[in-house]
Amino acid sequence: MAELSFELFNNQLVKVVVGARDENMRLIEKMLNVEILSFGNQLTIKGANGDIENAKTAIDILYEKASKGHVIGEQEVKAAVRICSGAGTADEKQSLSEMVLKTKKRYIYPRSATQAAYITEMMNNELVFGLGPAGTGKTYLAVALAVSMMLEGTVDKIILSRPAVEAGENLGFLPGDLKEKVDPYLRPLYDALYEMLPAEQVDKKLALGEIEIAPLAFMRGRTLSNAFVILDEAQNTTPMQMKMFLTRLGENSRMVVNGDLSQVDLPRGTISGLRDALDTLKGIKNIGSVTFSANDVVRHGLVAKIVKAYEEKIKKAQDEK
């Protein structure tokens, strides 16, 4: 077992970082299997070398955030540890922790190294595939970047889409007009927008067409220029639907396609358009792809355990074949 001692110089910031009754340090201990002792502004970390390094970097990240006036709570601690548990040098991890998407209502930071990689891919590529289970922030971060780019004037329009009623888009049996039929299936996209912009701004932009939320079928025949386009639940598209959607990409636009290939609701024997696109477009430049895992789930801690249990069940079934 190795040991590292160091000093944090601002006593007030140290109190913020360690938390009431050292609760933030206890969380780092649990996540990284280390022991942290704090005496005033002197901290000592005991454990395996790699774990000590990650814990030290996480504490440095939290100290830097506290110095900028951020409140340090459970989610901030978990985010710092997730980032530090990824690949890269301490400086690179610190840089990832400083990545921020600015919206009207909040600043949004990556909560894992994979989330940071996803944001980077979306910034650097015209088309990005985000793959992985629910709760990993795929759609939320895509909407956050879209809103940030719209506020900066980089894009004029945000278009959010997903297949309605699984893959078939058969809405006729539902009561109400078209909007009332479609809205329940697009609700997660509305929820993300209202977390990032004041409600009156969302409503105004929807009315003006600056933000558009529509089922996938509405994309047919359009060219989407100067826009940030997001397709959610893409695993439930057919290959023809996916091809139709991807070929809507216009000048000065970005497109993000998100889905979970373990949650395909297509009829048995039907190929997922998301799977087909990944195979077909492999190796093409300016197309990014990021895969999330249960370790990136940022919802309730139990959700991560549920996702991991299902992943292990699927892996076991595949191994037995």
If you had to describe this structure to a student in words, what would you say it looks like?
By secondary structure, the chain is an alpha/beta fold. 46% of the residues lie in helices and 17% in strands. The protein has helices at residues 11-18, 23-32, 49-67, 74-84, 90-97, 113-124, 138-152, 178-196, 199-208, 239-246, 273-280, 301-320, and strands spanning 2-7, 35-39, 42-47, 101-102, 107-108, 127-131, 157-162, 211-215, 227-231, 254-259, 287-291. The chain has a 6-stranded parallel beta sheet with strand order 8-7-9-10-6-11. Strands 1-3-2 form a 3-stranded antiparallel beta sheet. Strand 9, helix 10 and strand 10 form a beta-alpha-beta unit. It starts with a strand and ends with a helix.
Protein topology:
Layout: E1 2-7, H1 11-18, H2 23-32, E2 35-39, E3 42-47, H3 49-67, H4 74-84, H5 90-97, E4 101-102, E5 107-108, H6 113-124, E6 127-131, H7 138-152, E7 157-162, H8 178-196, H9 199-208, E8 211-215, E9 227-231, H10 239-246, E10 254-259, H11 273-280, E11 287-291, H12 301-320
Helix pairs in contact: 1-3, 2-4, 3-4, 3-5, 4-5, 6-7, 7-8, 10-11
Q: Work out the oligomeric state of the chains in this entry.
A: single chain
Describe the global form: globular
> Helix/strand/pairing class, anyone?
alpha/beta
Number of helices: 12
Helix content: 40-55%
Radius of gyration, CA atoms, in whole angstroms: 22 Å
| Total strand segments | 11
